[in-house]
Amino acid sequence: MTFDSVFEEMGLDSKDKEILFELDLNSRISVNKLAKKVKLNAGTVNYRIKKLEAKKVIQGYYAVIDASLLGFEQFRVYLKYQYINPEEEQELINYLNNNEMVWWLGKISGEYDLSFVSWAKNSSEFNEFWKKLMLKYRNLFQKINVSVYTNLIQFNLAFLDPKNEKRMKIQSNQKNKIKISEKERKILKLISFNARMASIEIAEKLGVTPIQVKYALNKIKKLGLIQGFRLKFNFGLFGLNYYKVNFNLKDLKKHKKLVDFATQHDKIIYVDETIGFADFEIELIASSHKEFMKIIQEMKEKFSDIIKDYDFVLYSEILKIKYF
C-alpha cells in the first residue's frame, strides 16, 4: 500500500498532512497561528492534532539543539551483535536510552544492528562513557564502528506536502562557543524532550515566570543554540522505509554538488559529515525498496564522475531523539 492510501485508510486527509508539515517546520507554533496557515478554525486544528497523537502518527516533539555551541562534540557508534538474546538486547537499549549523553538511538538492519549518537565535552569524557559501556556489554558485539560528527544537516519532511515548496535546512556543529545560565540549561532540557511544552508549564516546573521562560527561549534561539522545533513522525506506521546511505567518492572537491542535490530532494532528510566513515552520507525516506533504488540510480547517473560506490542500512525503529 502507498503512503497516501494508508493515510486515507486511517481516516486522515490532506489537511492533516498540512498540519503535520507545519508542525515539522515548527512544532512550537501556536494552534491559532497554525489554524491560519492551514485555513481551519483553531478548535478543529486542536482536535486534529490530538487525533494524530492518539493514532501515533506523531510520536512526540523535540527541539533541535546545537550543543557544539556549548563546547560539546558528537560521537556516532554502530554496533553489530553476536550471541545476544532478546533480554540482553533490551537491557543494552535501556542502558543507552537512560544515559543522558546519548541523544539519538535507533535499531538498524544490514551490516550493523544498533546505532547511537552521543554528546561529550571532549574525547576524554566520551572515553569514560565508552569504557563503562564496554565493561558491561563488550561480549555482545561482533563489530564496532565509532566516528566523529563534524557536521549535521537536516531537512523538513517535504514529502508530507509536495505542493508546499518550503524547504527548511538546519545545520549543526558551529565553531563559535557561548555560555548559558543554569536556568537556561534547565529550560533546554525540558524543551528538548517536549518542544510543545507551554511556557507556563516550564515556568511552573522551574519556579520562574512565563515571561522569563519566553525571554530565555528567544535569547538561546537568537544565539543559534536552538536550531528548530520538530515532530517525531512515525514512518513505520505508513510502511515508509528509512535508509542510511554511505557513499565513497572519486572526487572530494565536488562534495558540495551532492549536498546541493540533497537540499533539493524531498525524500532526503539528513546529510551527515563525519571523520572516520564514508565520504558522503545521507538519510532518506522511500515508500519501497524499488523507490529507494530509483533515487540511488538517479544519483549514480547524475554524479557518475563523483560517486565511486555505496552501501546502506535500513533503520527499523528510532528509539530516542533527545538532543540535550
Summarize the structure.
The chain is of the alpha+beta class.
Structural notes for this entry:
The chain has about 325 residues and is of the alpha+beta class. The chain has a domain at about 160-165 and about 235-315: 2-Layer Sandwich (Alpha-Beta Plaits), CATH 3.30.70. The protein contains 11 helices and 11 strands. A hairpin with a 4-residue loop joins β9 and β10 (about 280-285). α3 packs across α4 and α8 crosses α9. The longest helix is centred in the middle third of the chain and has 15 residues, at about 125-135. The protein is globular and about 50 Å long. The model has no long low-confidence stretch (mean pLDDT about 95).
Radius of gyration: 20 Å
Mean pLDDT: 94
For this structure, what is the CATH class of the domain at 158-164 and 235-317?
Answer: Alpha Beta
CATH homologous superfamily of the domain at 158-164 and 235-317 - what is it?
Lrp/AsnC effector binding domain/regulation of amino acid metabolism (RAM) domain
The structure class reads alpha+beta
Q: Judging by the overall fold, what is the CATH architecture of the domain at 158-164 and 235-317?
A: 2-Layer Sandwich
**Distance from first to last alpha carbon:** 37 Å
Q: Ranges with pLDDT <50 over ≥5 residues?
A: none
The number of helical runs is 11
Helix amount, in percent?
Answer: 25-40%
User: What percent of residues are in strands?
Assistant: 25-35%
Question: What would the principal axes of the Cα set say about the shape?
Answer: globular
Order of helices and strands: HHHHEEHEEHEEHHHEEHEEHE
Report the sheet with the most strands, covering strand number, pairing sense and barrel closure. 8 strands, antiparallel, barrel
Number of strands: 11
Instruction: List the strand order in the largest sheet.
Output: 2-4-3-11-8-10-9-5
CATH topology of the domain at 158-164 and 235-317: Alpha-Beta Plaits
